[in-house]
Every structure is written in C-alpha cells, then in structure tokens.
Hints:
By secondary structure, the chain is an alpha+beta fold. It has one domain (16-138). The chain has 4 helices and 5 strands. The protein has helices at residues 32-52, 70-81, 105-114, 116-143, and strands spanning 13-19, 22-27, 83-87, 90-92, 98-100. The strands form 2 sheets. Strands 1-2-3 form a 3-stranded antiparallel β-sheet. It starts with 12 loop residues before the first strand and ends with a helix.
Amino acid sequence: MLILNKEQKIERTKWIEPAEGLKLLVGSANDSRYQSVSATAYRHIERLDSKMKVGTSDFDISKVDTSQPLDELLMFTVAQYLLKDWQGVGELNAKGEQVAIEYTPERGARLLKQCPDIYWKVIDAAVELSKEESEQIDETIKKS
C-alpha cells in the first residue's frame, strides 16, 4: 500500500510595523487561495466596468451601484488570506477602556477599511515576500 503524505505547506510571513505601536503579520501574495479569490474579484470588477462602459463616453457615474463598494471586496480578501495576526489593535470596552483584541479576518477588514493606507502597506509587504520566495526558489534550482 502506498501511503500519501499530508501536504505540508510552508508559508512565509513577516511582521511589519505600518504605524507606531501597530504590528501586522503578513503572508505572501503567492498564497494560492489569495490569488484565486483575488482573480475572481478582479474578473467581477472587469465585467462591471464593461457593463457600465467605464472608459468610454457612454459611462455615467450616476448609475454606479455603491451598495457594496468593490474596495471592501478586495480588502476582505487581503484580510482573509494575507493578514495573519496583529499586535497593537484594540477596542473600547463598556467602561471606555482600551482592550487588545485578537485578529479575525472580519476585524482585519474593518481595520483596512478604516485605514486604507495600511491596506496598501500589507499588499506591498505581501508582494515583497512573494518576490523573496521566487528568488529563493531560483537559487535552489541553480544549486541543484
């Protein structure tokens, strides 16, 4: 009988400090789940752009559906697959005191929506990690 080993996925992560006192653990943009969901989101956006005739003289900004901003879709995807943990994020309790909270993708999406500049810093860090992964793979192949 041939026994299949469980697939072990090595995931590269790194801590970034996008603001004083805030540390975020970011994963690589090479995450296949992130790439798949992100590609689906971008296809959705492209279809909406085509339907709304974005980039043509027939485009009418007043007909854009703003009930679910597309930015939120992209931010949730990043919070779900690229943002892994945090330090220095909290909420106010009933007494008005600051209380540290654990990371969840839902809370991560709230942070990214509240601070869009952090969204871009997470994306930059994830892309940098993916480049480092690619370089490491290239070096390993050259050594073989």
